[in-house]
Amino acid sequence: MGFRTDAIHAGQEPDPTTGAVTVPIYQTSTYVQEGIGKHKGFEYARTQNPTRSALENNMAVLERGVAGYAFASGMAATTALTQLLLKQNDHAICSDNVYGGTFRLFDKIVKHYGVDFTYVNTSNLRDVENAMRPNTKMVFVETPTNPIMAITDIHAVAEIVHRSGDARLVVDNTFMSPYFQRPIELGADIVVHSTTKYLNGHSDSVGGVVVLKRKDDADRLQFIQNAAGAILSPFDSWLVLRGIKTLPIRMEAHSTNGRLVAKYLAEHKKVQKIYYPGLPTHPGHDLARRQMSGFGAMIAFDLGSMDAARQFLGRVRLCSLAESLGGVETLISHPATMTHASVPAEQRTKLGITDGLVRISVGIEDVDDLIADLDDAFG
Ligand SMILES: *Cc1c(COP(=O)(O)O)cnc(C)c1O
Question: Does the global pTM surpass 0.90?
Fold first, then answer.
């Protein structure tokens, strides 16, 4: 089936008891059993919930994996992955400008379990190659990165990772969604998402999902999901399922607006630097064209100073100053003090996350209204 058909139907059958077209919210903690050992495959809702299963099966189809598992947040999903792939004395490689919360999890928690992390610019294949060790078990890539939209060649990194032992390539696909980028098709072993962003798409739910290529990894992650227990609730599973039905048309609308806002910003004299993979001037533009089928709607731009950023962010009205991204409404943020506040200042500067950097998640409002709002904010 085509992607749009799968987005609406994959993993979802009309309800067997009532014929309800939409998967019901199975708001139950347990299921009655007909006798000892006699049940319909459902015992306790941490282990199995039909609403959650529908979302998990849907995502497995959209991301071309064998199975998916939904978690209470994107960070809970990544935590489960570290439980799947890493143990004491293992080594992991991670993109050096991943989502701030991912860095915080690895650096402040997982590292203390005796796992060694190396942070490299994964856009540079030589750096990935040089960082690989015999005990490397996980290579974690975010592409495009947050917030400066650096692109990593998933296919090429997969080749490097798979040359050595049993390391797995994990790709955080939150920014593109499977509509624009499918890492497993490009060679990755595992895809992780914050469903909080584009998949749910309406800024009204927090969640995460993992999709895996290998059956053995999938079985083990299912065990971890149940044993560690950070599951997505039935209601949130239902919200994300509902969001995914319109993912293709939302992503198209986001991308169209993203391109127009990027063009406006690129031409503005107060914008000193702009990061958007859809612009031919972006260093990852050609690679982005090859491995993504759209450029999305995340843009970062540098206004030169904290004062300029503060003034600009204080003046926007239609665009909301807020963390998060990927909702239908336009959100604008200041990475240095918001999403990336937990990244040390020195590291931030190295990554280009300056005090003047502003990030915008372009929504699907009328683009003329968005550009008028930005124009007013520039003063
Ligand atoms: C938001 C985000 C996360 C974390 O997800 P939560 O749902 O907030 O826990 C991870 N990666 C990226 C790229 C994100 O944008």
Answer: yes
